[in-house]
Amino acid sequence: MSDVFDRIVDRAGEVEECPLRRSDLDACPFRQLEQWLEDAVAAGLPAPNAMILGTSAVPQKPSSRVVLLKDVRDDALLFFTNYESRKGRDIAANSSVSLLLPWLPLYRQVAVVGVAEKVSREETQSYFASRPLASRAGAWASRQSEPVASREDLEQAFREAESTCDLSQPPPSWGGYWVKPVSMEFWQGRSQRLHDRLVYRREGDGWRIERLSP
Fold first, then answer.
1. Bridging pattern class, strands 96-103 and 196-203
2. Of 22, 44, 138, 148, whose CB neighbour count within 10 A is largest?
3. CB under 8 Å to 11, separation ≥6 — which residues?
4. Rounded to the nearest 5°, which phi and psi values hold at 88?
5. Helix (H/G/I), strand (E/B), else coil: 141
């Protein structure tokens, strides 16, 4: 085994104490998520809205990748992608997904389990129009998750998209998903690995909150 693990310094005992108590939590997990996201932005963390999306089209074949959280509403989290990508195909077969927002310098993470639903075409068009032109051209040029012969072919497809595609409109295969959680766990690192884990679980029209052992 590589000796790289011998050079990793375990700083678990150096975690700055920042307790997460039941009384600290907002009654709404989405407002709590927004509060922690604001803390990550204020701390100057890179890509504070990056989250790991886990999907599985069939049992025992999960996959994960990083996507960007683009909005939070009172019952769902939003991200955009290519519907014909691997994650899009996975969600078409099995809409149950997981999300993980890791804010490692703050010793925090939020783990979400939920169901993904496509957003309306109007919502997709509105967001697509707000993107830089280069990002719009990239969405038209990329057949996401499909093999491409070379970098040069990809760059040629980008140039063609810039000159021939209607960049005011998203590609037919491109759009967003709202993920509606059934659970949201807020994890705060603590010393001695006695971390605080508080999870919201969907219960009827509301949420039940419980503490988990670390």
1. unpaired
2. 138
3. none
4. -65, -40
5. helix
Contact of 211 with 187, CB cutoff 8 Å: no
**Residue 191 burial (CB count, 10 A):** 13
Q: Which two tokens stand for residue 104?
A: 């490692």
Distances (CA, A) of 109 to 37, 98, 101, 185: 10, 13, 5, 8
**Structure confidence by residue, pLDDT tens digits, 74-115:** 899 999 999 999 999 999 999 999 999 999 999 999 999 999
In the residue annotation, 201 being an active-site residue is answered as no
CB 178 within 8 A of CB 77: yes
Name the packing angle between helices 151-164 and 133-141 (round to 10°). 120
Q: pLDDT, tens digit, for every residue of 35-75?
A: 999 999 999 999 999 999 999 998 778 999 999 999 999 89
Give CA 48 to chain center in angstroms.
10
Residue 159 has pLDDT above 70, yes or no: yes
Q: What count of Cα atoms within 13 Å lies in the side-chain half-sphere of residue 186?
A: 25
Choose, from 21, 22, 65, 193, the residue flagged as catalytic: 193
User: Which phi and psi (to 5°) does residue 104 adopt?
Assistant: -60, -40
**Interval 122-148 mean pLDDT:** 90
Q: Which residues contact 143 (CB under 8 A, 6 or more apart)?
A: 82, 84
